[in-house]
Amino acid sequence: MSSFDLLLQQFVNGLSLGAMYALLALGFTIVYGIMELINFSHFNVFMIGSFVAMGVLSLFGLSGQTVLLHGFPLVGVLVVTLAVTMIACGMLGVGIERLALRPLRGVQGPMAMITTIGVSYVLSNVVMLTMGANTKNFPNPIPSVALHIGTAQITVFQFIIWALSAVLMGGLYFFVQRSKLGKAMRATAQDPDAALMMGVDVNRVIMTAFFLGSALAGAAGFIFGLYYNFTNFGIGFTAGLRAFTAAVLGGIGNIPGAMIGGLLIGLIEAMAGQYIGAKWADVIIFSLLVLVLVCRPAGLLGRLAPTKS
Amino acid sequence: MITRRSAATLLAGTALGAAFGLPRGAQAADSKTIIIGINLPITGADAAGAKRIMNGALLGIQQANDSNEFPGYTLKPLVLNDATATAGQYDPAQAATNARKFVSNEHVLAAIGPEMSGSAKAMAPILSEGNVSMVTPSATNPDLTNPQFAAQYMPSGKPTFFRTVTTDAFQGPNMANFYAETLGVKDVYILDDSGAYGVGLADAFQKQAEAKGLKVLGRDRLDPTASDYSAVLTKIKSLNASSLYYGGVSNAGVKLVKQAYAIVPTIKKGGGDGIYTPDITTGDGFPAAEGWYVTNASPHVADDPKIANWLNEYTSAFNEAPDDYAITAYDGVLVILAALKKVIAEGKQPNRENVRAAIASSSVDTLQGTVSFDQYGDVKQRVVSVFQITHDPKYPLDDANHQFKYIGVAPQS
Asked: Where the protein is mainly located, per its record (chain A) (predicted)?
């Protein structure tokens, strides 16, 4: 492979990885933007998303890499699976908020965040004890067609990831900027008390934030399964931690920031694997995080909304 | 944020370890009871292999009781689980707790296990202090019996840690010989999974590969909790490597096998006994897993007609065919029983020290042949068997005996 092809290939690898981190990072950012809460249960909502998607695919008779679909059935299966997974994960997120976080609302200090860590462990252990700890073979019905540029290749599936991520992120951005509920979300983020006085239903806003964030995590879980063809109960931590880093890197609470942070971390991971050694990837990612936070405490893009006092 | 996470890991680990690591089997025992401890990760990622090992050991104990080999004594197993829910696999901290349980139970004279070297490193010092002999059917890390680390793993100065398999000091190098001589590859890229076992195995492989004149194109370390190894695999592709060697267990192995099939499908790929497990064939499926070479640190006897009776007995007792480490576990029980028999025949008290001394000096006929130990507790035979993953659609994916095809003994240096 020529050095240009190699760079291109690692760029493609990194972009796919980054798209997934970005989807996951958005969930952290939406919830943080509204509640100033770091929601660690998000890690495992993502993991559960991959299991839900695997379950739905198995209902279509797909298991392992045995069945390839084409044309309309392929699109149909993917759309249905994506929809079911996103709704299920969204409901899970709403459930977590309702059961574990709402009773703690207004409590000062890190209680709510610690609760989310607890919820995260409950989720991963429930999956491990019911589904088993071994790695599962995730079905992928998408034929492996690839576009070759020199010796680098871009698979049709990578295009699907990029397109899907772009659509979901664009949709979210549009929703938050243009819709009435989105406006209510931004108002709540700026000043929840004032928003309440203006007649914004804060509970509804918070539930919406959890639903949207968790639904995106479910989509990321589905993409993860399709991309890597496996899942297990432990996938949430590493991916979640990197996505969280992406959110902080871009400026937590800032939606475009999370997207940029995710893409950046995906690219760093791929380039580090090529040019420095995969074992250094975490060192570089987290050093960059420290550097950015020291120099720009609000992250690369900072917070768009004025910070609460 | 990391501190918080690790603090939470610690907390959850303690609580869940207590919930799931409960001892099972004999607790109350009369004075004529001899307990053989068994410590294996019987839940979690390695459960399938661990259960086969456990069954091998249980069969040995049961046969001795059935044929009344020790008149006046009853043999009992005490099975402890060293896997925890937080680790999702073997957990050295739990293994250390279990070792203390063996030591504090005076009826435990010797033990079988653990399966994993990481657990063995946690247990060996405790068992050495308590003078409980342990025979492992599968922990292959060389440090455990290396005199250089004797102060750490053998603080009592006497061998208490024995193996019925050889070590990675042979498993790695013999596989390097296999790469150079049998596969005839000219270069290799080496990966490990950053665990004690994986790093040691890859180091041993690398040293011998260099000695054999193989060009080592690179060496990198995989994070077993990460999901994406495509960056390093793309690099391997760009180097036009003709082969890949992976030292590690199935946790990173499953993902590596899958992504290697997508990125470098045609090069020769291999690893150690850490990926000689049905987790690879079920987790990856075919064709992804097809063609990988794996080794086992013991002679391959699991379909030897000479032990057909034993194989039948095992299969009918547990409804599943044994693998080679079920056999080395059974062999380990035979070693302990032979030592006990010798102690009793010589009119000595069957206690820990007498059993330990008898094991150290024993020479026992077992299923894999004669087992005897060097001064550090390592088995004297040094056979490493090579298998290749070859899909046999007639059998289920988790049937390791049929999805892993025996190739032969790796050339010894």
From this structure: membrane
Whole-number pLDDT of residue A93: 95
- List the helix and strand counts (H, then E) for chain B: 14, 14
Interchain CB contact of B194 with A (< 8 Å): yes
**Which residues does chain B have within 8 Å of residue A270's beta carbon, measured at their own beta carbons?**
230-231, 234
B78: left (phi over 0), alpha (psi -120 to 50) or beta: beta
CA–CA separation, A145 and A228 (whole Å): 16
Summarize pLDDT for A147-160 with one digit per residue, the tens: 888 878 888 888 88
Q: What residues make up the domain containing B251?
A: 169-296+384-409
| Domain count within chain B | 2
User: Which residues does chain B have within 8 Å of residue A10's beta carbon, measured at their own beta carbons?
Assistant: 231, 234
pLDDT digits 0-9 by tens, B276-317: 988 888 888 888 899 999 999 888 887 788 888 999 999 999
For the entire predicted model, the pTM comes to 0.78
The three-class DSSP label of residue B146 is: coil
Going through B161-214 in order, the beta strands assigned E by DSSP cover 161-163, 187-192
Are B136 and B86 part of one and the same domain? yes
Chain A residue numbers touching B194 (CB-CB < 8 A): 279
Across residues A24-53, what is the average pLDDT? 91
Residue B123 counted as domain residue: yes
Q: What is the ipTM of this complex?
A: 0.75
Across the interface, whether the CB atoms of A270 and B5 are under 8 A apart is answered no
Average pLDDT over residues B323-327: 90
Q: How many CA atoms lie within 13 A of A142 on its CB side?
A: 21
B186: tokens are 């000219």
Residue B19 lies in a domain: yes
Q: In what order do the strands lie in the sheet with B33-40?
A: B74-81, B33-40, B108-112, B133-136, B161-163
CA–CA dist B323, B33 (Å, integer): 30
Domain range summary for chain A, segments of one domain joined by +: 3-295
> Is a pLDDT exceeding 50 seen at residue B7?
no
In a domain, B301, yes or no: no
- Residue B32 CA to residue B75 CA, distance in Å, equals 9
For residue B398, the model assigns a pLDDT of: 79
Residues B36 and B135 in one domain: yes
Q: What average pLDDT does range A19-29 have in this prediction? A: 91
Pick the range with the lowest mean pLDDT from A149-158, B136-145, B359-368. A149-158
Q: How far apart are CA B284 and CA B264, in angstroms?
A: 15
- In this structure, the answer to whether residues B352 and B388 fall within a common structural domain is no
CATH number of A3-295: 1.10.3470
* Assigned domain for B121 exists: yes
Encoded tokens for A141: 């019905």
User: Which residue has 């599943």 as its token pair?
Assistant: B320
Condensed to tens digits (0 to 9), the pLDDT of residues A74-89 reads 889 999 999 999 999 9
